[in-house]
Give the backbone structure.
Amino acid sequence: MPVVLLTDPIDHAETAKLQQVAEVRLLGEAQVGPLEDEIIEANAVIVRRPIPSELLPAATSLRALIRHGVGLDFIPVEAASAVGVAVTNTPDTNAQSVAEHVFGLILGLHRRIAQNDRLIRAGEWHALRADALSLHEIAGMTLGVIGFGSIGEAVAHIGHFGFGMNVMAARQTQRGGPDWVEFSSIVKIASQADVLVVACPLSASTRGLIDTRLISTMHRDAIIINAARGAIIDETALIAALREQRIAGAALDVFSQQPLPDDSPLRSCANLLLSPHVAGVTCESMRRMSEVAVSDTLQILKGKKPKHLVNTDAWPQIAERWLQPIT
């Protein structure tokens, strides 16, 4: 039987589908070795953690790396293409979950929900009620969205139609978009946004995108939300801006180093909400991601081109590699 390696658990029902046609191995289970050993025997890997590029040359039986998620920074796409390994992902499967979490963070900051909970347990009450007079509704505020893929569009839709926010967005492509969104440059958006949401993929061009220069264009009452990838924000620049109160606050679901180190200076920023990279993780989104990942895996094991192939330019090399039967 073919071997499918899971770097982490996926939906149980979808795992059962795979077990009907393949030997399914889960890293961390008894009798299953480390990634560097198991990938050598695997015909497909469903990926929920980083795959080092140096493991691929020895993985001669490997047909595909199937990303259980949207972002491709966990997979060395160029290295996979070079050896004829297919790469897929599960687009549009977690957009709603991420967008909902984003607004939980926005409301958490603007209405000081976590702070109120913490202080009321410490015996505060009257001061908190008096302080509430300084808070604002987000209705009518300007929502700036950096990245207008499925997640960015879901965030924008909730902001505009759910809260009555004015939406500005930046994106790489020039295709048409909804008329209730003002598409503009990142600098202009940062200078006008009351809430700046990072929703773009991590790439060479977006690494460190939210830096000292860009933050300096924001007004003092603005907040930043990052539910994309930690490295898109220059954390040193963000920490300085928060401590000097050059912006009102920030909320991070992702970090440049995960889990967040115990000695990270981010932990000491009072006007910062921290979330453990769970924006896209719900029962519903995990089920959708598993369904798409397993569907493509089953196609791959049959030698058929998967629906969500990412490295399409490498298809000739991939097809040639697949001429060798699975043993």
